[in-house]
Amino acid sequence: MTxxxxxxxxxxxxxxxSPWRSSLRQLWRNRPAIIGFFxxxxxxxxxxxAPLYAHYVAHENPFTSNIQGTFRLHGRTIHxxxxxxxxxxxxxxxIGPTWDFSHYFLxxxxxxxxxxxxxxxxxxxxxxxxxSSALICCAVAAVLGVVAGYFGGPIDWVLSRxxxxxxxxxxxxxxxxxxxVLLTTGIQFGPIHVGAGSLLVPIxxxxxxxxxxxxxxxxxxxxxxxxxxxxxSAIGSGASDTRILLKEILPNVAPSIIVFLPLMVAFNLLxxxxxxxxxxxxxxxxxxxxxxxNDGLGLxxxxxxxxxxxxxxxxxxxxxxxxxGDGARDAFDPxxxxxxxV
Amino acid sequence: xxxxxxxxxxAAVLVMFAISVLVFLIFFAxxxxxxxxxxxxxxxxxxxxxxxRHAFGLDRPLPIRYLLMMxxxxxKQDLSSYVNIGDRVVPQILNAAPxxxxxxFGAAVIWLLVGIAGGVVAAxxxxxxxxxxxxxxxxxxxxxxxxxxxxxxxxxxxxxxxSSVFSWAPGSGYVPLTQNPGEWALHLLFPWLTLASxxxxxxxxxxxxxxxxxxxEDYVRTARAKGLSERRILMRHALRCSLITVxxxxxxxxxxxxxxxxxxxxxxFGLPGVGLLTFNALENLDLPVIMGAVLYGAFFVxxxxxxVDIAYAFLDPRVRLV
Amino acid sequence: MSDARVSTPLxxxxxxxxxxxxxxxxxxxVDGLSISVGRKEVVGIVGESGSxxxxxxYSLLGLVRDANVSISGHxxxxxxxxxxxxxxxxxxxxxxxxxxxxxxxxxxxxPVYTVGWQIVEQIRAHEDVTKAQAHARAVELLGExxxxxxxxxxxxxxxxxxxxxxxxxxxxxxxxxxPKLLIADEPTTALDVTTQAQILELLRRLQATYDSSIVLITxxxxxxxxxxxxxVVMYAGRPVEVGGRRDVIRTPRHPxxxxxxxxxxxxxxxxxxxxxxxxVAVSPLDLPPGCAFAPRCAYRFEMCDQRPALRGDxxxxxxxxxxxxxxxxxxxxxxxxxxxx
Lengths: 342, 322, 341
Known about the structure:
Helix content of chain B: over 70%
Oligomer: heterotrimer
Radius of gyration of chain B: 24 Å
CATH superfamily of the domain at 96-319 in chain B: MetI-like
Distance between the termini of chain B: 6 Å
Largest sheet of chain B: none
CATH architecture of the domain at 96-319 in chain B: Orthogonal Bundle
Strand content of chain B: under 5%
Largest sheet of chain C: 8 strands, mixed
Strand order of the largest sheet of chain C: 6-7-8-3-9-10-12-11
Distance between the termini of chain C: 34 Å
Number of helices of chain B: 13
Helix content of chain C: 25-40%
Number of strands of chain B: 0
Order of helices and strands of chain B: HHHHHHHHHHHHH
Shape of chain C: globular
CATH class of the domain at 96-319 in chain B: Mainly Alpha
């Protein structure tokens, strides 16, 4: 509307400001987004402290079974796995939440392990996989998308067809298929050998399946940039491709990449947890939030905390990242289409 | 327009072909995966392995194996499972399909109603308190792992509140529509709500963003100058233009779901649909079933993509060029 | 201002002030605009981008949807105060008594409905007629604005028309309920020169046919000189010169107007270079305390630190402290040498 032309004339007459600074300032003013960012940092920090907690506070090793274990609470010795008194009276049930930070805060799982400590360790794994696959995905997608959009022609055709095929594959099915196959054999690309249990397997799988999701919009942006006058004049003045890519294209594509990052971390986190839940993501002995939910399935009706707590952690992390992502979009790339599902 | 449709379908067929090759390569060409060993079992002698290989055509070169598999799958339709030997692949999938379709149909109705209503209410009241509430609910819906939500729902309906509020809620499992419509709906109620919540959140947010954009467009300014009411402008002008995005998104989502993307919901609620079938096949490396199920899924995704492209041309008069 | 012989003006704007409360401060977009539009009159509002001319007209009709806006003053339509009316009452005025058309015909119409549907929508929003009757009128209107084969074209979508044709459709739609006042916000700016002339001609013809008044907003003095009966020159949200067309164009009294007129190339003039007004448009956030144009004015002196009021005689007013004789002298020099300094 025209009132924006009045206010924009007002602002432009004040003098230019770097678009980065004004975007950052706008993001800083978006309180929910900043809160989301800090919540995310808190979650990361707490999870990173997992070894400290396990060692100094809980005095437990959350990865070894502790079926016969006992601990002291309020002066009494309590068995970690307790005899069932209800129902048929058969079998054992692990202890429920004690709400005491030093012992079994959220109770134990059916291996007698401290759920809270596992939650923190699992968080480390999940966050590691989520963030690194998001970074890899965005980096690869940026390179491929920019190359495809800028150079056009056969390079673009090949890359676009690759994107189409990967994306036409039902996305979870692709992730599951790759995981099932690669988890038994690991990845072998000539000299590169990644063992089957390594975390790199889920990281790379999740990163690759989302590459088209990020690359295609970036390619679109580069294509429309290519037609604009400032690029045309740079080409006309004889600047080399590398120079144009680095100095003109990249700075204009960067805001979109920034907007994608928090959202991709959230998506990748959710995907990893789904794969781990299905037992084809993170493999034991490592744990992630998804595997803990799986562990908690058998205990769902008796000790729901095991299955419910990791989900709450995932939700908190993903919500804060999504809110941050919304704020980033408003500040850096307001014209970006709100992408719904993956 | 006709040429456009033809070209679109040709492209879809090519993509299907590429996907089938990709699936085949993933499962049959990855080093280290030896179907014969899996079928024959751990203690198989080399003779038995050779027999199995021959019986399943595993000793032929890759391209021949691909063609054989496609032949069995589509032409002879007698491809049978590696795991449950004798169970034909195609009938298995066809039996599982109605379950998946039932799940998606109900969930889609719910998520469209809730999502569109949410988006419209949020956009109409932007700036007021209900707007960020809806946005937050939408963000929450997409941040929660779908399968976890299903488990939590099961916990509350089967265990915690089972004796009080949810005594009527059935356990997991599926009752066919033709057998008992009431039970069919009852068993699907919570799966519907769980699946719908994820998508309702997405749709509400997408629609709100589209509506807010549309309300800033010049044609809305003209409509106001014409003296139309805000409500009419929102519902007849802004919504109509924004629905294009929602409809295309809906087509893609339904395509993916029909193809088996609802597998997590099916696993959690024990619904024997295509998603569950695919997942079991994947766990057991039951290659023919995997092949069939994944192709089935990919077919619907590709079909949905093509249909959506064509539907877009119908909805947006500006696109009806070729 | 109103002559006893002339009946109540159709539209009377009195001291209209519009400001926006932005993060950077208060933006005074319109600062004390008063104009009156009589029946069958064409009033031209001219100024640069950001001069507040469009915002003023939008606020008149309640079309400013920014939550941070504050509007004060009086706006009377046919004697009735309409500023601050609730939206549902304004709605019966918009489109029926007062119509508005906008600058860019390419985006002015909803892309998913046919032009006929959109015209019918407006008619039926204000009048109790059947769809068939409204449809027939839509066809008539399209014919009147010069669209060939209107009976067929009424079923076409907006994107199937060219820019000039689309603007005609917009005009047809605006006039569908026979408004007494048409506000045209830069109706020809987005069009090429030939089409521009055609559209202006169309507006003139329709004005005569329907006895309506027009408020024409533009930055182009050429358009003003062709169309307007009276002229309001705006700068930084303030009216700086008001008067009849002949007075303002032949004997302009404000340095800004001299600049604007000087910028129009004239075949018979002795000048060899186009005149430009030095400096950039002032930011409404940083208005100087006195005359808003002073920073760019070649003739400023100490008086200009005080805000000049709009004064004059014979209906020709200006807001400049310069002596009348001095103005005449400068004007003569500018016309001869083409140098505004």
